[in-house]
Amino acid sequence: MDSPYLETAPLQVGDTVRLIAPSGPTDEESLQRAIAQLEAWGLHVVVGDNVRARHPRVKYLAGTDEQRRADLVDAWCDPDTSAVIALRGGYGAMRLLDGIDFELMRGHALRPDGRPKLLTGSSDITALHQAWDHHLSIATLFCPMVGNDPFKNSTVVPAEVASWLFEPWGGRELGFRPGEPQVAASAAPPGGTAPPGGAATNENRNFWFENATPNQPKSSSISRAGIGAVTGTGVSVGPGPSAEAGSGPRRPASRARTLVPGMAKGRLGGGNLSLVAAGMGSPELAGVREARERYGPSILMLEDVDEELYRLDNLLVQLVRGGWFDSADAVVLGSWQDCAEIAEVEDLFMDYLGEAGIPVVSEMGFGHDPDAPSTPLGVAVTLEASTQGRPRMWVDEA
C-alpha cells in the first residue's frame, strides 16, 4: 500500500475516534483527562466498554484478554471509526494477537471515503503496530499516548501529536528540530475550530508546511499565535502564548547524531526493542530475512525504557540471530529513557551494526522521552546521515 496521508490529514474535526486500553490499566483521572483532550480537538470520543476493567488475577492488565481484545476488534470494525487510540501502554497487547480474525479486520480497514483507519500508540502498542503492518499493510502512528504523563506534563507533546493527526504527513521531518518555536498543547486541532465556546479559529491556525523547498523536508514551524492549552485535568480553549513573540515553549533541541554516515530511503518500521524482540518467531515477524525482497528497502527504528545494558545486549542478540537487521537499509535509534548511559547504548549498537555497511543514527527522540516526537510507521521515508551537521529524516512526498 502506498503511504497514506501525504496530502490529506488522517483526521478532521467531528471524526469519531475509539479510545481503548489494550495493555495496562488506567485510573479515572487519566481517562477523563484523555477524553477531555480528544474532545478539545473537536473529536467525537467513544470509550471502549472495558476501558475501566481490571483482570481478576493479574494486576498489570486492563481486563482479561477477551475484554481487551473485544474492545480492540469492536473499535476497528465500527464503520464510524476514523482512528483507534490506545490510552496507554504497559504490557498485554501481544497477548491479544492470536485471537484476532485479521481477515475480518482487513474487511473493515477502510473508511467510507476509502482512506485507511488509523491506529495510534507506542511502547507496548508496538505489538499492534507489527500486526497491522503484517496482516493489514496499513500505516500507523507511533506516538505518545493520551492517557500517559507526557500529555499531562509536556509543553510540546499534545500539540505535536495533534499535528500528525490533523495535518498531512508528506514532507514532514521526523524527530526534534533545534531552536524551533512550539505553542502549548493545542485545545483545538491545527487548522480546525475549537469546540463550542473556544476562541481558536482558522485565523490563527498552525501551519506545519511553511518554508518548504524541493527535495527538502518541510518544517514543522508554528509561526502564528497559539490556539489553547490543556492544564491539569481541565481544558482551556483560550488563545495560547504567541510563538512569534518568543514566549511559547520550544521543541527540545535535536540531539540526533550520526554513528555511521550514509543516505537511505525505505519503509519505516520497528518500535520498542523489547516488543520487537518478543515478536521474533511470531507470524508477524516470520520470514524477516526475506522481508527486504518482499517489501523493498526499509529503515528500522528502535527505542526502549528502563532496561540495563546487559538486557539491551540480550535483546539485540535475539534480533541479530533472528535476522531482523538483514532487511535494514538503515537503523535509527530513539530514546533510551532510564536505560544505560547513551554512550554505552551507542557503543553496544555499534558492536553489532558498526560493520553492517548501513547508516546508523542515534538520539532521534521518539519513544519514552518526556517530550517524544511522533513517528509514522509503514510509510516511505528518507534518511540523510551526514558526517557534518545533524542527521535528518522525513516522510517522502507523493
Rg on CA atoms, Å: 20 Å
How is the CATH topology of the domain at 257-395 named? Glucose Oxidase, domain 1
Q: Helicity level, as a percent range?
A: 10-25%
Number of helices: 10
Number of strands: 16
- Looking at the overall shape, the CATH architecture of the domain at 257-395 is 3-Layer(bba) Sandwich
Helix/sheet category: alpha/beta
Question: pLDDT below 50 for ≥5 consecutive residues: which ranges?
Answer: 179-248
Q: At the fourth CATH level, what is the homologous superfamily of the domain at 257-395? A: LD-carboxypeptidase A C-terminal domain-like
Strand-and-helix sequence, N→C?
Answer: EHEHEHEHEHHEEEEEHHEHEHEEEE
Largest sheet: 8 strands, mixed
**Head-to-tail CA distance between termini:** 13 Å
Proportion of residues in extended strands: 15-25%
The CATH first-level class of the domain at 257-395 comes to Alpha Beta
What features would you describe in this structure?
This protein is α/β, with parallel strands linked by helices and 398 residues long. Among the domains are: 16-151, Murein tetrapeptidase LD-carboxypeptidase, N-terminal domain (Rossmann fold, 3-Layer(aba) Sandwich), CATH 3.40.50; 257-395, LD-carboxypeptidase A C-terminal domain-like (Glucose Oxidase, domain 1, 3-Layer(bba) Sandwich), CATH 3.50.30. The chain is built from ten helices and 16 strands. The strands form three sheets. Strands 6-16-15-10-11-12-13-9 form an eight-stranded mixed β-sheet. It has a six-stranded mixed β-sheet with strand order 2-1-3-4-5-14, with helices on both faces. Helix 4 links the parallel strand 4 (118-121) and strand 5. The two termini are 13 Å apart. Mean pLDDT is 84; it is low at 179-248.
